[in-house]
């Protein structure tokens, strides 16, 4: 706890990100990743493979949203494939060493947290991904299910949650906003995120089983795998969480600097 407190004090961070809890979450994720290293490694390897296999051959600029600590991001390989690699998250972790052609930007990827921090209406989030509209390849990496958590928590602290639609509805809307933002980009975009979440108790009884793709209005993913997010022994109450992670591609017509005929593509790829 002392080390985490020191890390919290010493990590440079935008005020909105600190106030909304993004820094605390970033530090907590780093420590959880260390504890759950064996359970998380297959998922991290699958994520890296999905990012690389969908990367256009001639990408000049690649953007990774939700880069975080880069545990699941193939940074060296991506940096070798492009002229400019841009990593984006609310907080840049301490001690992150990057290749020369790589920069890390601190941004509110959905825009709602910064909107609320600045006292604007929640419908005035703008176009948070517009600055990446010229990128050849944009990846949203294991981010989409996290986007609603801290903004909704902030609204609940302010006592405003009762004035909003049901939280599941607002959470799903935030996720659908992110999908729309990805589809609006001119380059190829790949979404890697939770498709299904199963929570079990210590006796392996299923407590909840959520089909997240239905809430986000997504088709069947083009690729998927299981992630033991909360393995046995991690939670004191004995609960475990297993995620089915999916991969979706938007604008698969953008490849190698030219557009291809979409009529031959599988409609489940989610072309827009």
Notes on the protein architecture:
The structure is a single chain. The protein has 272 residues and is of the alpha/beta class. It has one domain (2-269): Rossmann fold, CATH 3.40.50. Helix content is 32%, strand content 23%. The chain has 9 helices and 10 strands. The protein has helices at 2-10, 15-19, 22-35, 37-53, 75-81, 112-117, 149-157, 167-183, 212-215; strands spanning 61-65, 84-89, 102-106, 137-141, 188-200, 206-211, 223-230, 240-250, 254-255, 258-259. The strands form 2 sheets. Strands 1, 2, 3, 4, 5, 6, 7 and 8 form an 8-stranded mixed beta sheet that branches. Strand 5 and strand 6 form a beta hairpin. The termini are far apart. The relative contact order is 0.13. It comes from Pacificispira spongiicola. This is Class I SAM-dependent methyltransferase.
Uncertain stretches of 5 or more adjacent residues: 256-272
Quick one: CATH class?
Alpha Beta
Please give the alpha-carbon distance between the first and last residues: 47 Å
Q: Architecture in CATH?
A: 3-Layer(aba) Sandwich
Structural class per helix/strand content? alpha/beta
Short description:
The protein has 272 residues and is α/β, with parallel strands linked by helices. Helix content is 32%, strand content 23%. It has a single domain, classed as Rossmann fold (3-Layer(aba) Sandwich), CATH 3.40.50.
């Amino acid at each position: 706890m002392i080390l985490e407190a020191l890390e919290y004090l010493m990590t440079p961070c935008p005020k909105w990100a600190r106030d909304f809890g993004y820094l605390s979450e970033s530090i907590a994720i780093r420590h959880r990743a260390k504890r759950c290293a064996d359970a998380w490694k297959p998922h991290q390897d699958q994520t890296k493979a999905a990012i690389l296999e969908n990367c256009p051959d001639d990408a000049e600029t690649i953007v990774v949203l939700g880069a975080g600590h880069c545990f699941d991001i193939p940074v060296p390989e991506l940096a070798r494939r492009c002229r400019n690699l841009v990593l984006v998250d609310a907080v840049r972790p301490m001690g992150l060493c990057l290749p020369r052609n790589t920069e890390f930007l601190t941004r509110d990827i959905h825009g709602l947290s910064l909107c609320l921090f600045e006292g604007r209406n929640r419908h005035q989030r703008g176009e948070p991904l517009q600055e990446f509209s010229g990128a050849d390849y944009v990846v949203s990496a294991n981010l989409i299910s996290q986007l609603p958590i801290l903004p909704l928590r902030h609204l609940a602290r302010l006592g405003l949650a009762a004035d909003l639609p049901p939280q599941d509805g607002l959470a799903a809307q935030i996720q659908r906003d992110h999908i729309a933002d990805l589809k609006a980009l001119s380059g190829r975009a790949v979404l890697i995120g939770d498709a299904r979440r199963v929570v079990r108790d210590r006796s392996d009884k299923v407590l909840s089983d959520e089909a997240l793709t239905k809430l986000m209005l997504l088709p069947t993913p083009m690729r998927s795998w299981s992630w033991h997010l909360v393995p046995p022994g991690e939670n004191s109450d004995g609960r475990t969480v297993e995620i089915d992670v999916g991969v979706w591609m938007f604008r698969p017509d953008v490849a190698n600097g030219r557009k291809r005929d979409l009529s031959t593509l599988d409609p489940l790829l989610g072309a827009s």
